[in-house]
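Shipment paperwork, digital attachment
Item: protein structure file
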Amino acid sequence: MEQTRVKGQRWVVSTQQEVRSAVIEVAREARRRVSIFTHDLESGIYDDPDFLEVIKHLVLSQAYARVRVLIAAPNRAIKNGNAFVNLGRRLNTYIEFRHVREDLRTHPEAFCIADETALVYRLQADRWEGIADTYEPGVSKHYGSMFDEIWQASEVELEFRQLGI
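Attachment content:
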């Protein structure tokens, strides 16, 4: 007999607005950690005021909460300015950005994972189509492991730590 899902909601996303809403919903599920793999901190997603408020609430209300962000091509986010980057500069004890090592930039996907249970996943970072699920530990752990491997091999992006004058 198949076990029924106790908690969680799964849905398909196909537009920028749906991805933004899904990322906010998944981030709300986090109690300890949010891990984000992105190519360029998609404008309109990770700089959305509602998303930033969820992240700020997480790190300020939970002593051990951490937000880790892997960025494959950070130059555009740095040059154009990004509200998430600015928040990360102010809360740099809780939010850390790393630049994906060049030989590991072959991953075409983009995803956001909350506590290895909830995720938003897009197979192609340059497209909005993907899935979101507020309770999918198996899939979240799989991508969380991949994220951890890339995280360990990647370098801290110093540009994100520098304060602009």
